Every structure is written in C-alpha cells, then in structure tokens.
Automatic annotation (TrEMBL):
Name of encoding gene: nnrE
Record's cofactor remark: Binds 1 potassium ion per subunit.
Names of the cofactor(s): Mg(2+); K(+)
Domain YjeF N-terminal as annotated: residue spans: 9-215
Protein name: Bifunctional NAD(P)H-hydrate repair enzyme
Recorded family membership: Belongs to the NnrD/CARKD family. In the C-terminal section; belongs to the NnrD/CARKD family.
Keywords recorded for this protein, A-Z: ATP-binding, Isomerase, Lyase, Metal-binding, Multifunctional enzyme, NAD, NADP, Nucleotide-binding, Potassium
C-alpha cells in the first residue's frame, strides 16, 4: 500500500471525482458513510450518548456535518459546534444546508466553548489534510479545551492540528484522539511514535479512491500489509533437498548471552534454511547443541567470546551480532567478515549476503570507517538507539527517517529500523513500514529472532534482497501476533515468536 503526501491526497480526491464522474459532495458523502460504518460498529447509540461534533470551515468540517446528519438518521443523539471562519468550502455549505433542524448547532467563540463531560464522546472534524499552518487563536483554544476535558475523541481523517506528512512545532496544539478514522490510505503521521498520543488507534476505511492514480503516484513511502507480501515466498519444489535453501553461518553469543544465539538460530531454522552452522564461543557448546540439535556448531578457541572467523566458502549468507559482545577480538572478526564478504560469490556474482545486528552494529558505530566496507545489500537491523550510534541523534521521528534513508542510499544497504512500525529503507530510497507485530514483542530476544529469520531468507536463492527483508519483517511481526493471541502480550517471550514463524510463513 502506498502512503501519499497531503498534496497528493488532494490530487487523489480530484482524480477520483474526475474518473468516476462524481460531484465532490458525493465523495464527501462516501467518506461520511465510511466513517459511520466504523463508528456504528464501535458504539451503539446508547454507548455513544449525546455526541458532540466539532466542525471546522473546510471539507473536514463538511465531513463532520454529513456525519452529524447520518448519525441522527441512525438514531444517535448529536449536537454540532462550528468554528467561525471568513469562508467555508462549498461542500461544507451543502452539508450545512442539509443538516436537519433537529440537530442543535452552536457557534464556537472564546466565551462559548462547549461543555464537555469527562469521557463524553466527541467527533473531531476541525481540520484534516488541508491544515496549512499550526493552530492558533480560537482553533487552538478549542483543541486545548477538548484535550483538557478528558473526552473520548474520534478524529475524522486525522487529529486536528496534526500535519499528515511533516512535524509540527512542539508547542502547537493537536487533538488527542483515542481513535482516528482515515480515508483510503494510511498517513505517514500515523506511523511515527511521536504522534501516537494524538492518533490513538487508527483505522483506514475504503472510499473507492482512484486506483489508477494511486498506482501512478510517486512516493518513497509504502505500508507492507498482507497483500504486499502475499505469494512472495517461493514454494518448496517437490525434489528440493537441503542444499536448495542455502547454508547459513551465524556468528553469535558470548558468556551470559548464549540465549541470543539460540533464539536467532531457532528463527533461522524455522525460516526455512537448508543448513545452519553457528560459530559460538566455547562456553556455549553444550547450551547450543542441546537447545538447537538441528543446527551444526563450531566453537571458537576463546571460551567467552568470538575471536575467529571460519572459512566462509560453504555459506550463502552470514549473520553476525546477537549476543556478540564488543571485545576487540570480535571487532577483528567483523572487520575480516566485511573484507571477505565484498568478494563476489562465484554462483551469484553478488557479495555474500550479510545480516548485521546488535553488538555488531555497536562495533560499526564506534568504528565508523568500517561502514565504507559494507558490501552491497548488507542488511542492518538497528533499534533507534543502535541507529543513533551509527549516525547522529535525530531531532524527531521525521528527521530519523531522513537519516535512515540517507544511510541506506549512501551505503547501498538495507536498513531495518525496528519499532512498532519497523521501517525498511532500501538503497534506492524507498521506505517500507511494516504493519504486523505488537507491544508484546517489546521483550528481550525479539530482535535476535528477527536476525535469524532474515538470515534464512537472505540465503534463499529466489528471493531478491528487498523482498526477502520485507517479507521477513512482516512474518516476524505476524508470528508475534499469532503468539500473542495465545499468550497475551505480557506473557509473550521471544521463543514464542520462533515457534510461530512456521505458521506465519505458511500463511503467506
Ligand atoms: N482525502 C479524501 O479522500 C477525502 C477528503 N475529505 C475530507 O476533506 C479534508 C480536507 O479538506 P480541506 O482540503 O478542505 O481541508 P481542511 O483540513 O478541512 O481545512 C481547510 C480549511 O482550514 C483552513 N485552515 C488550515 N489550517 C488552518 C489553521 N491552522 N488555522 C485556521 N484555519 C486553517 C484553511 O484555510 P486556508 O489555509 O486556506 O487559510 C481551509 O479553510 C480531508 O481531511 C477529509 O476529511 C472527504 O470529504 C472526501 C474524501
Ligand atoms: N511495540 C511494538 N510493536 C511491534 N513490534 C515491536 C514492538 N516493540 C518491539 N517490537 C519488535 O520486537 C523487536 C525488538 O528488537 P530489539 O529491540 O532488537 O530487541 P532485542 O535486542 O531484545 O532482541 C523488533 O523487531 C521490533 O520491531
Ligand atoms: K480532524
């Protein structure tokens, strides 16, 4: 699914109206009906009580007026507050004219802010994607009043005061919604942690927008939903053998962190790899062999950390980092690995695929000269703190995305910035936000599981790098969702994700 800018969204409206020979007010009616569909599945008239709808002067306010009419028709009690303005949009005027007289309407003014009981339901239709500047004056006062009231807010299209695709100044007021019901496509603003307190839970309703326009629209931003990855995992041919799906090497573990190696290896095996060899410190031998009997194991001469790089000839992909530690000897291993991986493989003509995580990223961050040696299409999987160590502190989430994109383009690598909407940045500057996963995965070892799964998929001869990583990130989150359905989010541990990788991949 594509994510468009606010300007593109306006063009999309216009294209839809043109292509489908609609009046713009008919598209507004569709939007209002889609909103009602969601709203009425969520709140019965009794649960909703008297619902206040606050309407601005543009088409977002026009949506609000149409919503008021439709809710009344369905037996909801509604009242409307209008933000005065010099002019209103023509579709606003149409819906104002058609608002039944039974709906109480009040004009907002500094002296007349509506009484809102704590927990009362309010629909925010002040401003949508037409927001052209931060809110001030009466609009700001209304938003402040609404936020202070502790109401239960449902935002139409986007919380008022929030830009769809850019940051707003720190102190500018934004509606804090519990739910946001958007139209057509998700907005970039919905996916960033800094906006979570405003957006709440978001939903996107289909209003039949022009698929042709969307297909043609140029955007770096994509949202990986089930449709984006469906059918991408090649089937296993009947006469395949363990050599068909690659032999991977995992460099992981140190004293006290062998679990990271075990979890990562488990995920790699469940990810469908043909063969896995783990190179681990001596202290981990029994732990590893007992917990992952399907994997082969090489032990380092050092008991507590890794200091040697095995011969890389047998392997189609190498993962490094989970539980590695940051010993100087392990840094030397990473250095040698980067040098060796740069040589094109005989079979593919491409550099050896690498997945670099955790302490291997921290080592890169503290020895940045090594970044120049990253082989093309290396996969790096930092969480925001690890990413900061590779680059610089970000001013905000938008700036972090810029840094991520620049990094992937500069180093021609695949950057997986982990989080609630894990973002994959590609060497060509695309950003793919993942849709799966849950807060139960915010638990030690979840990232190690992702590394193992990505390693398996990077060894898969038929999967191009970007597809492999996008698919892996999606399946990892899906496995987490399947696990949480059984354990609950609090009870989820990383091993549960490993156990659900198989079903998650099967679903694809
Ligand atoms: N996307 C879709 O598919 C569909 C979209 N639809 C709906 O349309 C919405 C977009 O409508 P929209 O373009 O009329 O903009 P909207 O947000 O109502 O505000 C514009 C008005 O506010 C004003 N204004 C702006 N900033 C301001 C500020 N800080 N303080 C004060 N005023 C400010 C601005 O004035 P100006 O900038 O010109 O000075 C103008 O008058 C969209 O979010 C969705 O709900 C559906 O109906 C159909 C399907
Ligand atoms: N709130 C969340 N929603 C969805 N996924 C999450 C959430 N929190 C963490 N995750 C996922 O769990 C993993 C955590 O990785 P990481 O921070 O490296 O953990 P660890 O180092 O403990 O393995 C990432 O893949 C991340 O996307
Ligand atoms: K709104």
């Amino acid at each position: 699914m594509k994510i468009l800018t606010a300007a593109q969204t306006r063009q999309l409206d216009q294209a839809t109206i043109r292509e489908q020979h609609l009046l713009s007010v008919e598209l507004m009616e569709r939007a209002a009906a889609a909103f009602i569909q969601w709203f009425s599945s969520y709140f019965t008239p009794a649960e909703a009580g008297e619902t206040l709808i606050i309407c601005g002067p543009g088409n977002n306010g026009g949506d609000g007026l149409a919503i008021a009419r439709l809710l009344l028709q369905r037996g909801y009690a509604v009242r409307v507050s209008l933000l005065p303005a010099e002019k209103q949009s023509s579709d606003w005027q149409h819906n104002r004219k058609h608002l039944p007289a039974a709906v109480p309407v009040a004009n907002l003014s500094p002296q007349h802010l509506p009484a809102i009981a704590e927990g009362a339901l309010v629909i925010d239709a002040l401003f949508g994607t037409g927001l052209s500047r931060p809110l001030d004056g009466l609009a700001a006062a209304v938003v402040q009043h609404l936020n202070d009231a502790g109401a239960h807010v449902v935002a139409v299209d986007i919380p008022s005061g929030l830009f769809a695709d850019a940051p707003q100044p720190d102190d500018s007021p934004v509606v804090r919604a519990q739910h946001t019901v958007g139209f057509g496509l998700p907005k970039l603003a919905f996916l960033l942690p800094q906006n979570a307190e405003f957006v709440g839970e978001w939903h996107v309703e289909n209003i039949g927008l022009s698929t042709g326009f969307i297909a043609e629209a140029a955007t770096p931003w994509h949202y990986t939903d089930a449709a984006a990855v469906a059918g991408q995992l090649p089937p296993r041919p009947k006469f395949s053998h363990k050599g068909t799906f690659g032999h991977t090497l995992l460099l992981a573990g140190s004293r006290g962190k062998m679990g990271a190696a075990v979890l990562s290896a488990g995920a790699c095996l469940r990810g469908g790899v043909g063969l896995l060899t783990a190179h681990i410190p001596g202290c981990g031998y029994d732990i590893f062999q007992i917990s992952q009997p399907e994997a082969m194991c090489l032990t380092d001469k050092q008991a507590d950390f890794i200091s040697e790089l095995p011969d890389l000839k047998p392997y189609q992909a190498v993962g490094i980092g989970p539980g590695l530690g940051q010993e100087a000897a392990s840094l030397a291993v990473l250095r040698k690995l980067l040098q060796a991986a740069a040589q094109p493989l005989e079979k593919t003509g491409q550099p050896l695929p690498l997945v670099i995580d955790a302490d291997a990223l921290n080592l890169l961050g503290s020895h940045r000269a090594l970044l120049k040696q990253l082989p093309e299409n290396a996969v790096l999987t930092p969480h925001p703190k690890e990413f900061e160590r590779l680059t610089e502190p970000a001013r905000d989430d938008y700036h972090r995305l810029e840094l991520l994109r620049d990094f992937a383009q500069q180093h021609k690598c695949l950057m997986v910035l982990k989080g609630a909407y894990t973002c994959l940045a590609t060497p060509t500057g695309e950003l793919h936000f993942n849709s799966t996963g849950n807060a139960g995965m915010a638990t030690g070892g979840s990232g190690d599981v992702l590394t193992g799964l990505l390693l398996a998929l990077r060894a898969h001869a038929q999967l191009p790098p970007v597809e492999a990583v996008r698919l892996g990130v999606y399946a990892h989150g899906r496995a987490g969702d399947m696990a949480a359905a059984l354990t609950g989010q609090a009870g989820l541990v990383a091993g549960d994700i490993v156990r659900h990788i198989g079903p998650a991949l099967a679903e694809l």
